[in-house]
Design a protein that fits this description.
Blueprint: E1 4-15, E2 22-33, E3 37-41, H1 48-55, E4 63-68, E5 71-72, H2 78-87, E6 89-93, H3 104-109, H4 119-132, H5 148-160, E7 166-170, H6 178-195, E8 198-202, H7 206-209, E9 214-219, E10 222-228
Parallel strand pairs: 3-8, 3-9, 6-7, 7-8
Antiparallel strand pairs: 1-2, 1-4, 4-5, 9-10
Helix pairs in contact: 4-5, 5-6
Length: 241
Amino acid sequence: MKDTVIELLGVSKAYGSGPQAIKALENLSLQVAKGEFVSVMGPSGSGKTTLLNLIAGLDVPEGGRVMVNGRNLSELRDHQLADLRLRTIGFIFQTFNLLPALTVERNVRWPLDFSGLSRGEVRRCTAEALRRVGITNSEQRYPGELSGGEQQRVAIARAVATNPSILLADEPTGNLDSVTGRSILDLMRGLNRSEGVTVIMVTHNSFAATYGDRTLVLQDGRITSDLHTPRAMPEMPVDHQ
C-alpha cells in the first residue's frame, strides 16, 4: 500500500493465561495509508479497543509486529513511545477524559507543556486547537460547566493540539445525542480531508461508520470484512424520539 503509515503484521493479543485466556486479536494483519479515514466496527469483545491501544503503543502484542511510520513499536523504549504519542498520535475517548479540576485552556495545553515549546508557542497552539474545534470564549470554564458535545470538542482540541498525523478515536460519539454526534463526526472528517490527518475510529454506530473511506468489521479478534466506501456526504438519520 502506498504511503502506509500504520501496519500490523500477524498481530495476536490475549488477556489472562491458560484455558481462561481471552483472545483479543488473533493473527491480525492490517495496512492503513496516509490520510485514510478507517471505521472499525464489531461486537463488544471483538478486539476494537485493543487494536487502538496497540497502535498507540499503550499495549504490546504477544505475537507479530505493530509498525507506525515504519517503526516497530516493540523496539521502542518507553520515552520513545511517549514521544510518539505526544507528537504523532492523538487519542479521543468516549468518556472525554478531561480533568475536572482544570479549565478548558489548561486541559488542552497540558500535553504541550511536555513538548519543549516556549510558553508563547504553547499559548498559541492551545488557542489554535480550540479555534479549530469551534470552542471560543470558554477557555476559563471547567468541564463540568460544558455540555457533552462541548466537552468532546475540548477533548478533540487536546488530541490535535500537538498537530498529530494520526488520530485514534474510541467511540467518540457514544455519549452524545445524534445531532451533536454528527457535528463531532463532521469535525473529525474535516481534520481528515483538509489537513490529511489519518483517522481510525472505533464505533458501534453504522451511521458514524459511513464517515470512513473504509470500514473494517472485527469478530473474535479477526477482520471479517474490509470494505472501501465512496466519499459521499452521509444523510442525517431521522430521530423519531
